[in-house]
């Protein structure tokens, strides 16, 4: 009998964390490596938010809190959802967790039984299918394509739904592609979901505020009020507020589901960090003017990366609507051999050779469920991005 749980055989480690770790190890060993794997803003947490955390420490707000969030933060979340999304929730419908990942995981653990299916558009954030597997469900990946700008069509959603479908996980703007759904595109999907009342909707709105070119964000319960009673709207402060390490995520949904999520959290991690919660109150209630200022820089970086990657031989890079990722195709590189003698027979082989020969760390597309692509995070300096893209161009030029 194995000492370790058989459940672990169903999942794999996070590829994005693995790439970031590998890049760090190579840097520590003296290699000149540019890491484009981490999904983390390079901006510092805004000063007013940091000061709110400091004040919480000085005021002795360092004790246990309610398991799924302090009342002040729940009120701030309700206000944010009303202000930004036109959604009405009460504090009893809010759950606060240790990052967005825990919120998603709690919801899946609270609802999935063996055989339950969860529809996940591919490419997807690497953790979605593995969290479904850990919770005992079955992920159903539905592939999109570069031809539809990596957006799921209503026809494909309809075809994927079965009597066993319990959840549809929806992420816009997307990690890894940056694809954002317009109101009309999302309405076409919600029209399908309205025909299947047994299917719940889990929205990951983490990149809500990181949008460009006048793109207007919308979320399913906002587009189709008829889905309100079976939608869990998930978000957090990590990306837009540059608070990745503070670890605060939240969700709004039906009270029965929120109560079940609270039960799981009370017996696992209990409350999120008290100091981080008070900082998140300030993030949501305080000035928001730095967000569009940061977006100007992100959009400039996006345009730089898209232009330079499209100038690389064998690469096609679409222009994303949001987040801080691009997801270029390497179809034109498959079947070639690198200058260092590596056979490029997959996107993983491309990423491996690129790291070894040029010192650029990216995440290969197979990790996100769709090949042959790779993900670049442009949440780093213009100088680093320019150098990294130049190296990618040189690498591609050397393929034979």
Automatic annotation (TrEMBL):
GO MF, any single term: pyridoxal phosphate binding
EC assignment: 2.6.1.-
Required co-factors: pyridoxal 5'-phosphate
Any Pfam family matching the protein: Aminotran_1_2
Presence of keyword Transferase: yes
This protein's record includes keyword Magnesium: no
Signal peptide residue numbers: none
Catalyzed reactions per annotation: L-aspartate + 2-oxoglutarate = oxaloacetate + L-glutamate
Enzyme class: transferase
Domain (Aminotransferase class I/classII large) ranges: 32-392
Key words, A-Z: Aminotransferase, Pyridoxal phosphate, Transferase
A GO biological process held by the record: amino acid metabolic process
InterPro entries xrefs: Aminotransferase_I/II_large (IPR004839), AspAT/PAT-like (IPR050596), NHTrfase_class1_PyrdxlP-BS (IPR004838), PyrdxlP-dep_Trfase (IPR015424), PyrdxlP-dep_Trfase_major (IPR015421), PyrdxlP-dep_Trfase_small (IPR015422)
UniProt record similarity statement: Belongs to the class-I pyridoxal-phosphate-dependent aminotransferase family.
UniProt subunit comment: Homodimer.
Protein name: Aminotransferase
């Amino acid at each position: 009998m194995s000492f370790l749980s058989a459940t672990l055989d169903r999942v794999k480690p996070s590829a994005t964390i693995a790439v970031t770790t590998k890049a760090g190890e190579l840097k520590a060993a003296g290699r000149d490596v540019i890491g484009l794997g981490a999904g983390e803003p390079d901006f510092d947490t805004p000063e007013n938010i940091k000061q709110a955390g400091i004040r919480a420490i000085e005021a002795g707000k360092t004790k246990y809190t309610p398991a799924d969030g302090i009342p002040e933060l729940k009120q701030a979340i309700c206000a944010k959802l009303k202000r930004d999304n036109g959604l009405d929730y009460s504090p009893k419908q809010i759950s606060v967790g240790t990052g967005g990942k825990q919120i998603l995981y709690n919801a899946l653990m609270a609802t999935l039984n063996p055989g339950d299916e969860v529809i996940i558009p591919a490419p997807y954030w690497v953790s979605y299918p593995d969290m479904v597997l850990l919770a005992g469900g079955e992920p159903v990946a539905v592939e999109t394509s570069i031809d539809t700008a990596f957006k799921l069509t209503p026809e494909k959603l309809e075809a994927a739904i079965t009597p066993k479908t319990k959840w549809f996980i929806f992420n816009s703007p997307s990690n890894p592609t940056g694809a954002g759904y317009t109101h009309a595109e999302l309405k076409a999907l919600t029209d399908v979901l309205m025909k299947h009342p047994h299917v719940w909707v889990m929205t990951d709105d983490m990149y809500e505020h990181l949008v460009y070119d006048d793109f207007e964000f919308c979320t399913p319960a906002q587009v189709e009020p008829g889905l309100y009673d079976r939608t869990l709207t998930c978000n957090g402060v990590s990306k837009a507020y540059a608070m990745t390490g503070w670890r605060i995520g939240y969700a709004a949904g039906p009270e029965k589901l929120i109560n079940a999520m609270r039960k799981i959290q009370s017996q696992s991690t209990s409350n999120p960090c008290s100091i981080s919660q008070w900082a998140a109150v300030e993030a949501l209630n305080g000035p928001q003017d730095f967000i569009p200022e940061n977006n100007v820089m992100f959009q400039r970086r996006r345009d730089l990366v898209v232009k330079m990657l499209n100038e690389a031989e064998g690469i096609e890079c679409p222009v994303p609507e949001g987040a801080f990722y691009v997801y270029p195709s390497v179809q034109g590189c498959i079947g070639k051999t690198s200058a260092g003698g590596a056979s490029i027979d997959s996107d993983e082989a491309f990423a491996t050779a690129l790291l070894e020969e040029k010192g650029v760390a990216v995440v290969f597309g197979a990790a996100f469920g769709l090949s042959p692509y790779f993900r670049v995070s442009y949440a780093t300096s213009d100088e680093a991005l320019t150098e990294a893209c130049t190296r990618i161009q040189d690498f591609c030029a050397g393929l034979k």
